[in-house]
Amino acid sequence: MTLPSGGAFYKEYPKSCDPEDYWGQVGRTVNGKPVPQEQIDLIVAAVCQGLDLGQNDSLLDLCCGNGALTTYFFSRCRGGLGVDFSDCLIDVANSRFKRRESESYRCQDVLEFVRQEENPQRFSKALCYGSFQYLSPPASLEVLALLRHRFKDVGLLFIGNLPDKDRLSRFYADKPYVPGIENQADSPIGIWRTTGEICELAAAAGWKCSISRMQDRFYGSGYRYDALLVPA
Ligand SMILES: C[S@@+](CC[C@H](N)C(=O)[O-])C[C@H]1O[C@@H](n2cnc3c(N)ncnc32)[C@H](O)[C@@H]1O
Description:
The protein is an alpha/beta fold and 232 residues long.
């Protein structure tokens, strides 16, 4: 049985984008324009530092999108696998961003992947950037628990760009708010959680969680945070 999960928007939407608008395809835009390179550099620095990514690491990137971000991380380690359920984004990843034999991209739902992967011990670090909020609550818990108990060599898991429920009212101050939208995985921003809620979810799956925030000049810093998980 596959539990329902959100993010299905990204199965079709990228087809309407310019084939070379890699940031647009994964929704990394401000006022409809792709975010500038300095913003990408901030993300790459935060993830590489959080994961302490090094040449001996093999990285699992869950919900990797089109690989435009993943490729920065693969270039800092031995390579690894990106998984995403959008076939058009995975096509872009394979055609534009796969650089070496040790890097691969696979089209699959991440819950199915963590249930079925035959060689989970090949990964030393894992990442889920800008995407975890699109998993349904039962899927979120199961993904974290399977990463903890099947992917035994994953020593750090970075869950990035989570929407902060404590900053929901600030975000919606100048936008129309639909009550309850913060609990919907299949809404445009997905599920908003407080830092306490993500730490509780992590703990229930066997992880210890620490929270960090991007510097003020990061475009999402006003309402997002990152979570770094280590085995409890
Ligand atoms: C905002 S994009 C982020 C992509 C990439 N991590 C990045 O930061 O550039 C969200 C991604 O999550 C993927 N996604 C959402 N739910 C998924 C699921 N259950 N299994 C696999 N991919 C999923 C979507 O297809 C989409 O590529």
